[in-house]
Amino acid sequence: MPQCTMRVMLELVGLLMWLNAGSSVGALYPPPAACLHQEMIDVELAIAREATAGTPNPRRFRNHVYTCESGETDAMHARRLQNVSAGAPFREASEPAVTPSRCTRYEKDPQWHPNKHEYLWSAAVLKGAGGVSGIPASRSVLYGTAYAQQKIFHSQHPKDCTTAKYLVYKFGTWPGMGSHVHIAGQALALAIELNRVLVWMPDHDTFPFREPDRCPNDFTWDCWWKPITHCPLPGADADVIVKEVVDDLNVNLSMPFTSWGQHYEFYSEWVLSGDLFGWNTVPSHFSELLHCSPIKGTHRHYWWRAQASTYLFRFNKRTRRDIDDFKRKHLVKHRSGAELGADEPASSGTGKGASVPSGTFGAFIRLSKEKQMEIQGGKGARHFHAMATTMVALQAGEPTHVINNHIAECTNRSAAFRTGELRRAVLISADSNTALDEAMTEHDPGGALDGWDYFFTKHARSDVGVGRMFQDLGRTQTMMISFANLELMLEVDGLACGMSSNWCRLIDELRMTVGGRANSPFVELSAGVGRGLTNCGNAAEIEKPLGMRNRHCYLGRP
Q1: What confidence tens digit (pLDDT) does each residue in 344-382 have?
Q2: Do residues 173 and 208 lie in contact, with contact meaning Cβ atoms separated by under 8 Å?
Q3: DSSP letter at 546?
Q4: pTM for the whole thing?
Q5: What pLDDT score was predicted for residue 171?
Q6: For residue range 164-199, what is the model confidence (pLDDT) as tens digits?
Q7: For residue 455, what is the DSSP state?
Q8: Residue 263: pLDDT above 80?
Q9: C-alpha 313: how far from its chain's center?
């Protein structure tokens, strides 16, 4: 029996037992999609044929956000468009009927190339995946990205700013950048839903990423990014609402908000009825697009996070120059067997900046004291060994499970590449000295990555966390470390990290959009049950059978 069909049956049995015990249903989380086993086999065979011919199809996503995680065959793609008007899994009753002809307007993403003057990422990011062993680089982009980026841009750039309505967002004070970006993205969602223009609260001296020496008159993201709108700050007579950090972004239309857990429970009665526009609600402007899409109904909010992060995370020219300078000075190559410190520059010192070679893997490792329990094994465990052995299998062309069993919902052994298509090279993005040291143990003689090339940025690290780095290194240097490592992780053609981390999710989101790597392998190594992947602190969810809990609430945690 196919793995995903068996899982659905077990979860239904668990639900019946739970109901017979007298439990209240409330809003039940949907079971995994019942992918057809033969279709999964067909996709895997198609991927193998395309890899052999060197002509990858951009619809072979091999991605956790799609209903069948290996993507679509041409026949599946055609059938999805034909059947869309008859209804789709997780389609809400309020969504309009859609015809196949209307869906074609959203089918233009696979080769979407961001405007390099608007999205100031490195050339290595924008070229897409591949370019090894004579196989040309190609881009595979998250469904709906071209349309969504255009829609967001138009919403934030009205023709007449004097008649526009505004949502002013005030930042929180915590130092986690990934969390800040995701919450700002939900402020953008609320602004679009209310037909308002999002602007930052000016002169906000508690903004944790402010840098007075760099931007003495701007304590917002505009110090680092392009402005999110061309409109000036609204005047005294403008129609303005102000929202502050997390709780204030939950808009209740008919009842008071009382349960903290409901913030990210997007299958609660309040969200489904339209009474709550919460952390994980997607602007209704995109309902038709998502109804047409192959994206899981349970991952629509994750799709939105990717779109919002892509729009917000557009470096300004000064930041772009500083990232190039940092990469040129600090990106190094460490050969197998060499002592730590015996590194060579990854750049000649000329040109716009250093990049990792095409076909390189990337591993984001978190072992600082505040983050070490997010990853499998936690404190003191050799969790990088699991990443390393999976990367070795992929580089050798072996069909490999690449999605954590807590996340995967169907058989996913389709991540296989021809030998030589991926290099024996890995970028190490380590948040602490402990993390870098652990990665180096696999580089020693006899280690899983013995003989591989290592790349990493050489600079001071803290085992305490980013807040300490702000103190020790200064905000500008710490921001360049974060921005440069984020960009380098978008340049790699295979990703390994833990989805319970906001930073890992941000990397995943951006690699699927500006990075054009939606079909590149993703080795997911979160800590799993009990570490934030399944219950997410919601007591109501813990009471449900494991199979009926919100399996993806970690994707919605800011």
Answers
A1: 777 644 446 689 999 899 999 876 544 444 554 444 446
A2: yes
A3: G
A4: 0.87
A5: 87
A6: 999 999 988 777 899 899 999 999 999 999 999 999
A7: E
A8: no
A9: 12
Rounded distance, CA 465 to CA 405, Å?
A: 29
What pLDDT is recorded for position 120? Answer: 95
End-to-end CA distance of the chain: 37
Asked whether 114 and 121 are in contact (CB, 8 A), the reply is: yes
Which of 551, 500, 476 has the alpha carbon at shortest distance from 179?
A: 500
Do 240 and 234 meet the contact criterion of CB atoms below 8 Å apart? yes
Token pair in block for residue 370 = 């505040």
Amino acid at 384: F
Cα separation, 465 vs 352, whole angstroms: 30
pLDDT tier at 20, thresholds 50, 70, 90: very low
Nearest to 355 by CA among 125, 135, 12: 125
Listed in sequence order, the residues at least 6 apart from 380 whose beta carbon sits closer than 8 Å to its beta carbon are: none
| Most confident of the following: 88-97, 272-281, 329-338 | 329-338
Tokens of 342: 């015996």
Counting every residue written for the chain, the total comes to 558
- Residue carrying the six token digits 């716009």: 352
Please give the Cα distance from 10 to 213 (Å, whole number). Answer: 58
Token pair belonging to 434: 């402990």
The tally of CA atoms less than 13 A away on the side-chain side of residue 213 is 4
Structure tokens at 548: 């009926």
Within 13 A of 260's CA, how many CA atoms are on the CB side?
Answer: 6
Strand partners, 496: 363, 523
How far, in Å, CA of 499 to CA of 519, rounded? 17
> Do 244 and 190 contact (CB within 8 A), yes or no?
no
Q: How many CB atoms lie within 10 A of CB 433?
A: 14
pLDDT above 90 (res 515): yes
In angstroms, rounded to a whole number, what is the distance separating the alpha carbons of residues 222 and 412? 41
Tell me the two tokens of residue 259: 């349960």
Cβ–Cβ under 8 Å, residues 459 and 481: yes
Q: Give the C-alpha distances (Å, rounded to integers) separating 50 from 135, 198, 391, 409.
A: 11, 43, 21, 24
**Alpha carbon of residue 95 to chain centroid:** 26
C-alpha neighbours within 13 Å on the C-beta side of residue 278: 26
**Average pLDDT of 298-310?**
93
Query: DSSP secondary structure string, 220-252?
Result: SGGGTB--S-SSPPP-TTSEEEEEETTGGG-EE
Q: What 3-state DSSP class applies to 75? A: helix
